[in-house]
């Protein structure tokens, strides 16, 4: 740890070895935040941590957010650091690719979507609310337009994100001292997006880094708890 690291804000970002989570980790590292990051794949997570380590202290913990022992390890890492200013529940599961209509959706797959996208974020939030409350911190649950739009074949993921949105609203009501957000980042050129559109050219979708200024503006301005789209922070996104 660097000598002054104890005064730095601490963020835990799930699913930060790739895509939006990795881009957000870089955005926060540029500002000197200390990071706890996870992903299931240990190799890509180590690569991510190595790429961040020149700017900040980073604790990479490989594991699955649905695994209670892994979540306990994440909580322990936060406790070791002594504070938590930001929790970002970003790790997500889309469901099988190609996506399935609800009428024939595999129920085990559907259950797993809900485990990753709803129950794990709630469980991690439960465990970290004391630390977040002490820091008067910020909770960001990553949402999707699929939570509010009824797209054919997106019913599993979309309804899970809708459930996460509503849980976010209830958490905001229950914890008025915290800033509690569901944030829809918009379409991004990532592995998950490619899985949603198998075989399609997604090169016209923006890179995840393009929405990070919007997230930073959210953190800087701390508007009222609620649901936001990254695109609402237009000035930040276009700058
Ligand atoms: N991309 C889009 O167009 C888009 C649009 C709207 C919303 N979103 C939301 O944005 C968030 C990030 O998506 P993305 O597109 O950036 O995804 P991504 O590029 O596929 O990255 C997902 C990250 O999460 C990790 N991960 C996946 N499942 C995990 C689990 N069970 N436990 C721990 N880590 C896990 C992945 O690593 P491992 O595979 O090694 O675990 C990876 O680091 C998600 O919440 C998604 O729903 C994305």
From TrEMBL:
Domain of life of the organism encoding this protein: Bacteria
Pfam families: adh_short (PF00106)
Cross-referenced InterPro entries: NAD(P)-bd_dom_sf, SDR_fam
Gene3D superfamilies associated with the record: NAD(P)-binding Rossmann-like Domain (3.40.50.720)
Family: Belongs to the short-chain dehydrogenases/reductases (SDR) family.
PANTHER family: EG:BACR7A4.14 PROTEIN-RELATED, ZGC:101858
Record's protein name: Short-subunit dehydrogenase
Gene source species: Kribbella kalugense
